Each structure stands twice: as structure tokens, then as C-alpha cells.
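Revision sheet: C-alpha cells.
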Amino acid sequence: MNGLARSLAIMDLFTAERPVWTADLIIQACGLSRPTGYRYVRELLATGLLIRVGAGEYSLGPRIIELDRLIRHADPMMVHGMGVIADLVGATGCDVMLAALYGDRIVTTHQEPGLERLRLSFGRGQALPLFRGAGSKIILAYLKPARLARLFEAHAAEIAAVGLGGTLAELRGHLAGIRRAGHAVSTGELDPGFYGLAAPVFGRDGEVLGSVIAALSTARLAITDVRALTRHVTAAAGRLTASIAAANSLPPIFPKQRDAA
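Predicted:
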């Protein structure tokens, strides 16, 4: 990794289970020399991505909150998706989420509660397992072959463990079936007792950006018209894709403030 990638990799150390790190532990975990490690920590402090919370202890900084606000006004799925998601919740009563792909990660970027207000393990801001759950599988199904091959090479053991195939050809065959269906489903893969149904969202260049996911309990599933639910979810993802494609430009990040009276 280059210097920027190594510096930003430090951010991945901070989790809900371990939100505070010392510089020495960061250096050890990332395999850095002491001068390099301390330099990276200083740079992250200077940019506000880290904050000092005690003697030699660091946590995530307020710059992340600023960036989160910007994302809400700039990410095309969120800019164009809020009305679509609200309509989908109203039509189905399901909890609905948006998941977005970046690099080798799939992250929940928005969550709108439905009638059941489910306690989901992978809510907004959390990375989804790459190879489990409807929201991830539908994204994988539309990745370009070279990108999928790189993922297989890096995660072959995990892919085999979840039953998606022991070879790249088997993985492609499994995902081809999902692509033909145009949606993915999962039962209990992320949370026991919950069912997920997801459809893909594409950017203006035709590449997959992420997915729209509807979640409900398996108890409610038993009295749900799954065909109707599938139509609602795929139509919502199609509307979002169409809105992104039709947009000439994104709206201003922040509306202009009115002059004070």
C-alpha cells in the first residue's frame, strides 16, 4: 500500500468493540515503524479524522461527522433515493435499506424502519458481509468479471464456506442464476428469523452502485405475497436507477441560506 492507503487503513482499526487505540497499538496492528506510525497519527489528528481522548489515546474525530453530512447531500443513491425508499416502506411495511459498494466493501448507507421496526445487525454505517445476505449477493451478481475474479482470489475460502462455490466458475454460475432472476433473497443469513429481498441499483455508466433491500420477519413472511413484494422492490430499484440516470447534475450540497431579516 502507498502512504495514503496505509494512513487510512488505520481508520479500519476503530470499531464499536474497540473505539479507542493508543499510538503504540496502532503501530503494532498495522505493522508500521514507530516514526511512520506516529507521523500517520499526527496527520490524521491534523485533519480531524482522529481526536485525542486521553494520554496517548485516540478515537475517531469530528471530521467524519462533517463528511457524513456531505455524503447525505452528494451520494447519488441517497440524493435520489429517499422518496423511493419512503414509498417502498409505505407500500410494503418492510424495513428498507440502501447498501452501497465501494472497493471490496458493501456498506448500509440508509435504513428506514417499517411496521416491525426490526433490530437489524447491519444498520446504517455498518459493513455487510460480502458473500452473505440478499443485499450483497445481488451486487456481486452484477460485478464485472475481472472484479469478481479478484474478489474470488482474495476470499476463496470464505466463498466456499458460505456455499457459493469452490471455484470461480461455480461462483459465476451461482450469481448468474441471481442475475437472471433480477433479485436476490436470503433467510436468516444475517439475522436469525429475518428474510431479505434485494434488487440492484445502477449508475449512469451502467455499473452496479448498490442495492435496495427490504427486510421482514419470517413470521410476517408467512402472510406476505412474496411475488408482490418482489415487484415492489425491483420497481423501487428501477426507479432509483432511472432517477440517477436522468439527473444532469446533483443538487447543491447545502441550500442557500436566506438573508437574515
